Amino acid sequence: MKSDNTCPECDGTRVYRQGGISAGGGYAPNYLAGLGGFFSAAKFTIAVCADCGLTRYYASPEARAKLPHSDAWRRG
Q1: Per residue in 2-13, pLDDT tens?
Q2: What is the pTM of this model?
Q3: Is 63 helix (H, G, I), strand (E, B) or coil?
Q4: Please, what's the b/e burial string for 20-29 (b: 16 or more CB within 10 A of its CB; e: otherwise)?
């Protein structure tokens, strides 16, 4: 995740973030399937540009570390 607060779409500077959000599971869609724990879904951070509305999701480092070993995801 980029550390600056500039939107890549509109170059706006009003970018807001919220972290530690559950990627789903249970009755919600599991957006990071296979990357969480047995009893908990993987986490991600959401960044929203207040100027243009571009919304980006960033998987947590723990979820990203599981990607190469997950059967639910393929590279490319």
Answers
A1: 557 899 999 999
A2: 0.78
A3: helix
A4: eebbbbeeee
